[in-house]
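Can't paste images in this forum, so I'm doing it all in text. The chain is below; anyone willing to post the predicted structure tokens underneath?
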Amino acid sequence: MVFTTWQIGMDIQHENIRVVAVQRQRQGWQLRHWWQLPLPEGTFSEGLIMNTEALTKALVEWRKELPLRHQIRISFPGSRTLQRPVPAPDKRLSEPAREAYIASATARQLQMTSAQLCWDYLPSQDVADPHLIVAARQTDVAALLKSLAAIRLFPTTVTPGASALPALISPCRLDKCQYLVHREQSHWLWASTEPVPRWGWSDTNAVPTIFDLCQQLKTDPELVALSHAQSSPVPANILSLDAWRAFSRLQPPLPRNGAEFTVAIALAIGRVFS
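Text version of the structure:
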């Protein structure tokens, strides 16, 4: 079966937007296009959109290049999201009642109302609390979606960038690693390779080096695959994470620093749409 829809991953950073479009073909993932769209200084601050006009101006011409059939997954700043375990609701409850229970339990933990939250729940490795809630402020998400809707961009998902990294495990043959790590200028994104992955975000002020991060994650550097958006060399005892290996067909020319697109590629290939 050939999927004709473009699957698009969009990784929004303070200084630019990195976008990758792919298609699923019989022989594997095919790269259709990549873009790097600059943003004026001050468009975002600490993960929050501050200048909606600058964002839409950066995207409006790019939007015209998209085919009618496309699906977009967009990264959301890890610093603006929270993860919380919650007890499992009674299995006898209906699905709406279960969701209402989880929303209420999450809101109580965060000392907020349910209406103030955008949230989703995932499986957890914790037997006692088998649901892991991922939550963000409703106002933060709504501001981003409103800006995108102004130029007819309607994301299928908005998700923390770190949570997308496990999509690279199989196509990049990284099964033997314990963690995938991506370094940006001010933060680390990381995800485990377990069947139910753990993932997260760390500030580089608190965790300056990859070896500090390995210590925090309680893993050996030899079991980590690393990509670095600033083109810094990967230490000799750490595996390089090359997200472009996920493609069976590439579309030259490719970006000078391919590691900047690690999260965008992971978002693009993270789900198959028919």
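The radius of gyration is 19 Å. The chain has a mean pLDDT of 90.
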